[in-house]
Write a structure and sequence with these properties.
single chain, globular, 280 residues, alpha+beta, three-stranded antiparallel beta sheet
Length: 280
């Protein structure tokens, strides 16, 4: 090796997408703790209510909801790691009003209220299990954000990494998220303007109803960048509709006063807030 050059391992580009040995949330959590696993997933087969979900989606359009978001709920679950210098800031928490297990359970119920009863509880159960797992993996991250989205046209079609701690998602209907091992990424081509499809040589696409945990650039101890991923491509016109559950861990939540609704009455210091979010 020439002097001054680095290997992929030395540069932190040795991460991979790892399937858990067993298709359980406990094994998913165990796999996510592996240092080289920038992505961890389980395969569960088709959802038992897939046909009912698909029929429900036929009557819904992405544009009916702002950014396709059926519901988004942010929970302040740990003290901020970035101390705010503004003493009058209302969006900063002093650690005395943090959401606990009961608030998380109630938020998961709220998240799925607009879904039909036939599959509402199944999605709620996934959200609660993923939220609990995420909190165990990274207990010091301040924000837990729950999202339920219809995705069709608003897709992140470029390969990229995200600036969060983690995102765990389930695509109940439609094609799953695409991901890549670090060794399969052409790093000199990923940040180009325009399409960057040719920067990944081996694509790992999740099956419908799989659970994928993606580590972001702020995952504790991450080597290099987070998991390289993108929304699935589709040659169909129109592209297929997807119902997606997302559970994020984030250091900061940007709250726009025009987009926020306090879950409790005005003046109550609730740890729960709704917010607009980014793409896949």
């Amino acid at each position: 090796m020439k002097r001054g050059t680095t290997t992929l391992k030395e540069d932190g580009r040795e991460g991979c997408v790892v399937r858990a040995k067993r298709n359980t949330f406990s094994d998913l959590e165990k796999t996510a703790r592996r240092e080289n696993a920038k992505g961890a997933y389980i395969v569960r087969g088709r959802h038992p209510r897939e046909n009912e979900i698909a029929e429900w989606l036929k009557e819904k359009e992405e544009e009916e909801f702002e950014c396709g978001e059926i519901e988004v709920i942010g929970l302040n679950v740990a003290p901020s790691r970035n101390k705010c210098e503004d003493e009058n800031c209302d969006d900063c928490d002093d650690g005395e009003h943090l959401a606990g297990p009961e608030e998380i359970r109630e938020a998961c119920k709220k998240l799925v209220e607009k879904l039909p009863a036939s599959f509402r509880d199944a999605v709620r159960s996934d959200a609660e299990k993923i939220a609990t797992m995420s909190r165990r993996l990274c207990p010091n991250v301040p924000w837990l954000v729950l999202k339920l989205e219809i995705c069709q046209y608003l897709r992140c079609i470029k390969w990229h990494q995200d600036y969060y701690t983690s995102r765990t998602l389930v695509t109940y209907v439609g094609p799953g998220t695409c991901a890549a091992d670090d060794k399969d990424v052409r790093w000199d081509k990923i940040d180009v303007e325009g399409p960057n499809d040719d920067c990944v040589k081996n694509v790992k696409q999740m099956e419908t109803n799989s659970v994928l945990l993606m580590k972001g650039n702020f995952w504790p101890g991450i080597r290099g960048k987070g998991l390289t991923h993108k929304s699935p491509a589709s040659a169909k016109n129109p592209p297929p509709k997807r119902l997606i559950l997302k559970v994020d861990l984030q250091d900061d939540v940007i709250l726009d006063p025009d987009d926020v609704e306090e879950e409790e009455e005005e003046g109550d210091q609730s740890p729960t807030k709704r917010r607009r979010v980014d793409d896949e």
